[in-house]
Amino acid sequence: MGDQKSEIDTEEVRKIIKNLRATRDRFEEGSGSTFDVQQNGNITMRDLGDYPAARTLSESTSAAFAQISGQYQAFLTSFDGVLDALDKMVGNHDEKEQTNTAAANRVAPGASVGRRATKEWG
Fold it and tell me: pTM for the whole thing?
């Protein structure tokens, strides 16, 4: 794998990252935000009243809220992980390009690296 050539359009990937970050940021705004889900996603007995049917409904909604809230947080964590991985990929690619450019610049002008000086090759 070390000798395989890596070709990506880092500018295009940066545009994708920018769009994904904007999408991710929208999960923190308004209805459906993490705060909104935590504050308003659970129906409790305080909301329903204290009677047998309300207690049963409150238990059901609490269990559902715990499941949904956990899945929602896992989704956001995964989304953040994808963004971090893309950032790292672009950074690694840029670093590799800079290293390769620096190595090429160290080669003395006129040096015949990998070439034989023959009549055929000059």
Answer: 0.67
